[in-house]
Specification:
Layout: H1 3-71, E1 90-95, E2 100-105, H2 109-120, E3 128-133, E4 136-145, E5 148-155, E6 165-170, E7 181-185, E8 188-193, E9 199-207, E10 213-222, H3 224-275, H4 279-285, H5 293-329, E11 333-337, E12 341-344, H6 346-352, H7 356-359, H8 373-387, E13 394-401, E14 407-419, E15 422-431, H9 433-446, H10 457-471, E16 478-485, H11 488-495, H12 497-514, E17 520-525, E18 528-533, H13 539-554, E19 557-559, E20 562-564, E21 568-575, H14 582-603, E22 607-610, H15 613-635, E23 640-649, E24 654-666, E25 670-672, H16 674-684, H17 687-707, E26 713-717, H18 720-723, H19 728-736, E27 745-749, H20 751-756, H21 758-770, E28 774-780, H22 787-792, E29 797-800, H23 802-805, H24 812-827, E30 831-834, H25 840-848, E31 853-854, H26 865-876
Parallel strand pairs: 21-22, 24-26, 26-27, 27-28, 28-29, 29-30, 30-31
Antiparallel strand pairs: 1-2, 1-5, 3-4, 4-5, 6-10, 7-8, 8-9, 9-10, 11-12, 11-15, 13-14, 14-15, 16-18, 16-21, 17-18, 19-20, 23-24, 23-31, 24-25
């Protein structure tokens, strides 16, 4: 359909829709308004009409009264002037006995008789009203006088009714519909009925002189407003339609003259672009003026398009020549193919050793006869897809046999192109033989760990992966071990990396010499070794190997004048139970190693753990806990709170100190023991945030107690990682000094702090002591306790670990250890605190051997600050 026809159809549709909407509006709104107005008009006319009837009855009443008064003077009615001049249709006089004594009736005789009979029934009751006799509505007035009754009346005339209404008959109208309006005015009633024609039907009823409701007459009332409104609306629609058709015709022919014809001409010019070889002729045939700004712009754009096409054709010709120059001189191979070679450049000749003449027309797979059948089938499938018009790019490495029999590595990048409505494959070939040789040499270098001469992590994972593929079909178990040298960082920090590297060489050599041929060993990280056992498929065998590895590592390592006693943690995963890829096996062995390290932290002994799903779930649980810990510290730090455990002077049994212990009431996990989250916080660096919370709570409590007259010192646990921070001293000073509370706190550290950087640790402790802050050495006797270290550091108090206290005084070994520690503290002018006291026997024993302080559940569990106040107050009292 042409543009102008579409335009005309759209306008026609809009016009018809407008007419329908106008008609709907007219019928629903205007006609409704006309109808309401007309009903009000009819009601008003009815009221006027009934008023006229009442006036007639009033007139008749007055005449009857005058006649009665006249007859009372005993004058004969026959002497009265002509009653017709009074507009009366009858004049009757009855004596007291009811006998008609005078009659003047200008109606039909039969009507007169019936009228006389009807009046005789009501003559004793003076009244005014109407009677309906033989479809004649007659107004009557009765008036009594001394000698009888006078009756006058007038027959109803249709001339009383307005001209727009007409009477059709007397009596009751026959209509099945309900009235649209009922009006009552005194004795008169009007019912109005609607019709489909241009008029209403009405029924006029009234109460006669006897009081009965009678149907007077019926007729029709013209719908004047409705009829005139309809005529006006139809005339408006007709005029609008004529006007629209005229405008539409004008637009239709104007579009053809000023739009469609020039556009057809321009379309013809565009078609000529594809027919004419000389585009210049087409360009010059296009006029500059087509009668409108828009068409002139269109013609100009077509001219510009022709110029652009000319430019593109010229550029395309240049690009074709350029492609030929590039392809012929490119150092990379370029070829065009269907099922056969269609074009090859000189670089392809150089790579393959075949000439262009030998290659063109040959099957593209003829140099790949030595390849795997699956690869050849995939290449064939891809060729068919390209020739069917499927556009995709792929890249792969393969080998080809050259004309002189060499095998070369090549990189092929292939794509789909369309030339002259035909699909081809376009291939680019790079000779990567030298790169592959270099890669093999590089892999050999990457495979080796330069320090130990073992496999590197890269070499270990690559060779294990290859070995798994070879062993996969045997359906046997193989074991992957990750061996971590425990606390090796302490050695590096204390003795230097040169000593540490020499230790690693010794351990690597021991492990390598202990393995069988076919097993693999590599250095995975600074102090981690990976071992893949491929010769044993039983857990009993691997247990022997693990024991051997632990034994080799625990043998003292002699370096210069130093002797090092090492321990290790080992995580083991099993193929294929725990995974069928090197990545899965490493991941799960690492999970087992995490648990082994935790065991070492608890026992300080070498530990080996085999991966299990339960262990993996625990690691996941740990990760969830870490995630929640980060979230709480950022968004809900109020979940952390501090409880205090009293430290008693065992000599006088008074509370002299408190230990602040952090607690976590998690909204997700509930109340958590510090053992659940402190280690995670230390490993992730979040311990600093937790310590800041503890500092804040302790400061608030100390200030509150000071106001209440309670003077007490609180010890706070500090992690080794946090103590090493360069800003640690400044943090403590900035928090406590503004409140003059630095002498009201002690800091508890572990022996690890003393071992990692002796000089720095000693300087920090010295600064803290100068501020009045005591240093407590926690868990004394469980680590690398050394009298040399204790002499170097200004420690105030040694805390005897609960492990040595819990079986006192029965356990002889523990008894000896505790006595030694107490004597050592006294020798070094330090106090001692025994942790974990649970009964009176332990108190008595510790008091006897001179231990000054003690804490434990025997005295009090850790309690909130409010409970501490009660304990301190009770203690003072």
């Amino acid at each position: 359909m042409s543009l102008r026809k579409k335009f005309v159809v759209v306008l026609g549709f809009v016009f018809v829709l407008s007419l329908l909407l106008t008609a709907t509006f007219y019928n629903r709104i205007i006609i409704g308004y006309f109808k309401e107005t007309e009903l009000l008009f009819i009601k008003r006319e009815f009221l006027n009409f009934t008023k006229n009837l009442d006036n007639i009855l009033e007139y008749l009443h007055n005449v009857a009264g005058n006649e009665a008064e006249y007859l009372s003077t005993e004058k004969s009615p026959s002497n009265h002037p002509d009653h017709q001049k009074l507009k009366l249709d009858f004049f009757l006089v009855f004596d007291k006995s009811g006998r008609l004594v005078f009659k003047e009736c200008y109606l039909k005789e039969i009507l007169c008789r019936k009228l006389i009979l009807a009046i005789e029934k009501s003559r004793n009751n003076p009244t005014t009203g109407f009677l309906l006799i033989d479809n004649n509505l007659i107004g009557i007035a009765l008036e009594k006088f001394d000698s009888g009754t006078v009756a006058v009346g007038q027959r109803f005339s249709e001339s009383y009714v307005s001209g727009y209404a007409s009477i059709e008959g007397y009596g009751r109208i026959n209509t099945p519909s309900y009235p649209v309006m009922d009006v009552k005015n005194g004795r008169y009633f009007l019912s109005l009925y609607d019709t489909d024609s241009g008029f209403y039907r009405f029924q006029f009823s009234l109460a006669d002189i006897t009081g009965n409701i009678v149907s007077g007459f019926y007729g029709k009332v013209e719908k004047m407003l409705w009829n005139r409104g309809h005529i006006t609306f139809h005339m408006f629609q007709f005029i609008l339609t004529v006007l629209f058709v005229g405008i539409l015709s004008f637009i239709f022919f104007s579009i053809d003259r000023f739009v469609a014809r020039p556009i057809r001409e321009l379309i013809g010019k565009i078609k000529n672009i594809s027919k004419e070889k000389d585009l210049k002729t087409v360009y010059e045939s296009i006029k500059d003026d087509y009668g409108s700004l828009e068409l002139n712009q269109l013609s100009q754009e077509i001219k510009n398009m022709i110029l652009r096409i000319e430019s593109l054709l010229q550029a395309n010709s240049e690009k074709t020549q350029l492609f030929q120059i590039i392809a012929e001189n490119a150092p990379i191979g370029i070829y065009l193919y269907t099922e056969k070679f269609e074009y090859v450049n000189p670089a392809i000749e150089k790579i393959s050793g075949y000439s262009k003449k030998e290659l063109i027309g040959k099957e593209i797979s003829f140099m790949m006869s030595h390849l795997d059948e699956n690869l050849k089938e995939e290449i064939t499938r891809n060729v068919k897809k390209r020739l069917n018009g499927e556009f995709f790019k792929n890249e792969f490495q393969t080998k080809i046999r050259t004309k002189d029999g060499q095998i070369k590595d090549i990189l092929v990048i292939s794509n789909t192109v369309k030339l002259f409505n035909k699909y081809y494959g376009l291939g680019i070939v790079l000779d990567i033989t030298e790169i592959k040789n270099l890669e093999r040499k590089l892999n050999e270098l990457l495979d080796k760990d330069t320090l130990t001469g073992l496999l590197s992590r890269y070499g270990f994972t690559r060779q294990v992966d290859e070995l798994i593929k070879i062993l996969a079909g045997k359906k046997e178990r193989y074991f992957l071990l990750i061996v971590d040298i425990s606390r090796f960082k302490v050695i590096n920090d204390s003795y230097g990396h040169q000593i540490g590297d020499r230790i690693l060489k010794v351990i690597g050599e021991r492990l390598k010499n202990s393995l069988h041929q076919g097993d693999l060993i590599g250095r995975l990280a600074a102090d981690e070794f990976g071992i893949f056992i491929s010769k044993y498929a039983r857990f009993d065998d691997i247990a022997i190997i693990v024991d051997k590895i632990i034994s080799l590592i625990e043998q003292p390592v002699e370096i210069d004048d130093y002797s090092f006693n090492l321990t290790c943690s080992i995580g083991v995963s099993v193929y294929p139970d725990d995974g069928e890829s090197i990545d899965d096996l490493l991941k799960r062995a690492d999970i087992a190693l995490v648990r082994a390290k935790e065991n070492f932290s608890e026992t300080q002994k070498s530990s080996v753990v085999f991966f299990s799903r339960d262990l993996e779930n625990k690691i996941k649980e740990r990760l969830n806990l870490e995630r929640e810990l980060r979230n709480v510290l950022k968004n809900r730090p109020e979940e952390f709170y501090v409880e205090y455990q009293p430290i008693y002077n065992l000599q006088n049994m008074k509370i002299e100190k408190l230990e602040a212990l952090v607690r976590w009431n998690s909204s997700k996990f509930g109340k958590l023991s510090p053992f659940k989250f402190i280690q995670i916080a230390e490993e992730t660096g979040l311990i600093k945030n937790i310590t800041d919370i503890v500092f804040e709570r302790v400061i608030n409590d100390l200030l509150s107690w000071r106001e209440k007259g309670i003077d007490i010192k609180v010890s706070i646990n500090i992690s080794p990682a946090e103590f090493k921070d360069n800003d640690f001293i400044d943090r403590v000073i900035s928090r406590f000094k503004p409140h003059n509370l630095e002498r009201k706190i002690s800091l508890e550290i572990t022996e690890n702090v003393l071992l990692e950087d002796v000089e720095k640790a000693r300087e920090k402790i010295k600064q803290l002591k100068q501020l009045g802050i005591d240093i407590l050495l926690d868990d004394f006797g469980t680590g690398y306790s050394s009298l040399t270290y204790l002499k170097k550091f200004p420690i105030s108090i040694l805390k005897v670990d609960r492990e040595f206290v819990k079986e006192l005084p029965e356990n002889g070994d523990d008894r000896g250890i505790v006595i030694t520690i107490i004597q050592l503290s006294q020798l070094l002018s330090m106090d001692a605190v025994a942790e974990g006291i649970e009964n009176q026997l332990q108190v008595n024993f510790l008091r006897e051997i001179g231990c000054k302080y003690g804490q434990g559940y025997f005295f009090s569990r850790p309690v909130p600050a409010e409970e501490v106040e009660k304990l301190l107050t009770a203690d003072l009292n």
